[in-house]
Amino acid sequence: MIKGSKICGVSDQDTLKFIINHAYPPKFIGFVCNYKKSPRYIEGERLNELLKIHKKNSNFVSVLVKPDKNTLEKIKYLPFDYYQIYDCSPEELKEIKQKYNKKIITALTIKDETDVEKYHLFSEVTDIYLFDSKGYEKSMAFEHSLLEKIKINKPLMIAGNIQVHDNLDIFKKLADIIDISGGLETSGVKDKSKIDIFLNKVERLKNAT
């Protein structure tokens, strides 16, 4: 049952204001904090300035790929509600969660059923599971039907090359939260018209379930 959405890879003030002030704002907004290969990466000072805004009804998410201590220390005072973390062990996530007192979105990159089953390893530390593709900075898909059989008693977020004009109904039985980034862009830049279409579609889904 779809309960909300996440818009990831926001990197400019104008887009952020539009999203936060939308009639149906996403539950989560993600910012790429340490993965420099991503065109959506935001370096330190610009990130600090970007986040000086009232987030209203959205949660801010720091998107991190195997963060080191230096990165975590730099962002620890920023207004993030969640850390979305790729490529860390359960032990590493537990340490980060305890030290920085943040909720954890465990990001699992999926190619096959073996990757899906890894979610069991993170049950003690995870607040939300994100099932994503192996693409990282590239918008790649994975077979979303791989999630049909799993039973998780925590919120499940789904990503992986989801496009704004896709039939989002197919995710109703798979996930609680739809996570989209590249699908809301035109020529690599967040497109407000696509954002508006997406947020309205998610709102209709929420009301229909």
Task: Give the topology string: H per helix, E per strand.
Answer: EHEHEHEHEHEEEEEH
Number of domains: 1
CATH names the topology as TIM Barrel
Output the CATH class name.
Answer: Alpha Beta
CATH architecture: Alpha-Beta Barrel
Helix content: 25-40%
Sheet-strand content, in percent, reads: 15-25%
Which word captures the global form? globular
What is the oligomeric state here? single chain
Strand order of the largest sheet: 1-2-3-4-5-6-7-8
Q: Which regions have little confidence, pLDDT < 50, spanning 5+ residues?
A: none
Helices and strands in order, then pairings?
Layout: E1 4-7, H1 13-20, E2 28-32, H2 44-50, E3 59-65, H3 69-75, E4 82-86, H4 90-100, E5 103-109, H5 113-116, E6 128-132, E7 156-158, E8 177-180, E9 185-186, E10 189-190, H6 192-208
Parallel strand pairs: 1-2, 1-8, 2-3, 3-4, 4-5, 5-6, 6-7, 7-8
Antiparallel strand pairs: 9-10
